[in-house]
Known about the structure:
Largest sheet: 12 strands, mixed
Amino acid sequence: xxxxxxxxxxxxxxxxxxxxxxxxxxxxxxxxxxxxxxxxxxxxxxxxxxxxxxxxxxxxxxxxxxxxxxxxxxxxxxxxxxxxxxxxxxxxxxxxxxxxxxxxxxxxxxxxxxxxxxxxxxxxxxxxxxxxxxxxxxxxxxxxxxxxxxxxxxxxxxxxxxxxxxxxxxxxxxxxxxxxxxxxxxxxxxxxxxxxxxxxxxxxxxxxxxxxxxxxxxxxxxxxxxxxxxxxxxxxxxxxxxxxxxxxxxxxxxxxxxxxxxxxxxxxxxxxxxxxxxxxxxxxxxxxxxxxxxxxxxxxxxxxxxxxxxxxxxxxxxxxxxxxxxxxxxxxxxxxxxxxxxxxxxxxxxxxxxxxxxxxxxxxxxxxxxxxxxxxxxxxxxxxxxxxxxxxxxxxxxxxxxxxxxxxxxxxxxxxxxxxxxxxxxxxxxxxxxxxxxxxxxxxxxxxxxxxxxxxxxxxxxxxxxxxxxxxxxxxxxxxxxxxxxxxxxxxxxxxxxxxxxxxxxxxxxxxxxxxxxxxxxxxxxxxxxxxxxxxxxxxxxxxxxxxxxxxxxxxxxxx
Length: 560
C-alpha cells in the first residue's frame, strides 16, 4: 500500500487565514506584515512591545535526536507533532523551527517542514523562497565581500593584507566547484587577483548573527564586530572599519522579523533563521524563541541533527548568549535508525531484528547521558514506521526503562496530534516542574583549546583532540586579543560521535582532528573544523532537484 507524499498531504491542508493563527498568540492584524494569506512576518513594533512587557515566560521544550541516518529519525516531524499534541490537550503551545536551505532541498536531505500529518504549511513555499530571509542574508554577506575587494582596488587605506582576508562569499546552494576560486582575473580594472572561496549561506556568520541578535541595534553591533581579515601588522580588521555594517543591517531589517505560519492542524509556528548544526550552531533565532515564549505557555523548538551537535550548541551557545534554559528535552529516535546504528544495511531495515535494535540503543543511551550532563530531564520519543514490530519497540522501551528514562511510541506522522497525545501530556507535566539544574558544559573562563577538548571528551567520548600547530597558534592569538571567553562551535560530521561518518553507534578510542579554526567575533563563538567536514556541500549523484517539477496545474511536485 502506497502512502501519499508529504507534499501531497500538505496540499490537502485546510489552512486558516494567517490573521486567525496570529490571534491565537494575541497578535492583531496591525502587528503583522502579510506575505499572502498563509504566512506573515511579526512587526518589529510588536516584538518590541513583547520584550518590554517582561513578565510572561512560557515553558521551553527542546527536541533533539540520535545521530541521523538515511533510515530517518523524524526530529522536525516530532517537533511539529508535539506542538500539535500540546494544543490538542488544551495547552497554549507554539512551535519554533529553522528555515530550510535550498542546498538540501535540491540535494539529498530534502526539506525541513516535518512530514505526514505533522507538518508546517505552506510546505512548498517554506522550503523554497519563503519570505526571502536567506536571500537577504546572502546579499548582506556578499555586499561585505564586494566592499572588501573594492577597498583593495581603491588604495587599501586600511593596509589590509590580501593574503590574510578571511571573509569568503556565500550561496544558498550545494556547489562543490565554488569551494575554492580565484577572483579579480582579467586585468587591473577587475581588481586584485586573489584566492578565496564560497560557503553555503547557512554557514555564514551573518546567518549566525541574525539568529543570535536580540534586536536591530544588537544586529548592527554584531555585524560591525565581524573580523574580515588582518592588516600587514597582523592586527584584525572589522566590518565596521569598512563602514559596511550599516548597509548590511539595512538589508537585514525585515529578515530580522520572525515568520509566522501554521501546522496542518492550524497551530502557530514561528519559522526563522537556519544555521546548519554540523557546520554552524544549528538553532532558530533568539528573537523568534523569545517572542514565542512571551506569547505561548509552551514553546517546542528543535536543534539540528543529533544531540551531539545541535543540542550541545543550543545549550552551550544559544542558551548562554540569550539567557535561556530548557524545561524539558525530547530525544527522538526511530527503530529503523537504531537498527542502522546496530549494523543493519538500509536494504534490510524492513526485517525484524531485535538484536540490532538493542545494539543500536548504545547511540541512544550515549545521548541520554550527554543531556543529563547539562542537568536536564529527558524523554525519548520513538517515531513509528510501518515496518516496526512490537518486539523491536518493546526492546527500546525496556532499554529506556532500565535507565529511568520514559519512552513513548508515537504515531503523529499518520495520526497527527492524536498519535502523540500521551507524550504531550507527560512532557507538559515535566516542563511544568521548571528547568532543573541547567548548567552549560563549560564556563566562559576556560581556554579555547580546553573548551574544544571538553566537548570532544564529554560529548563525543574522544580520547583527545589533535590540533594542527597553526591552529594552536591561532587560538592563542585570539585569546591574547580578548576572544578567549567565547564558546566553541565544532563543525564535524553529523553521522557519528567521531569525525568519521562511518563509525556509527557509540564509538570510543578515537581522536577529534581539528584542521582549521575560524573566528566569528560578531556571532560570539569560535568555529573549529574537524575531520573532512565541508562548509560548502556538493550535490549527490542523483540530486533531489531531478525529481522536482511543476504539474499541469502549476503546482510544485517532488519536494519531500
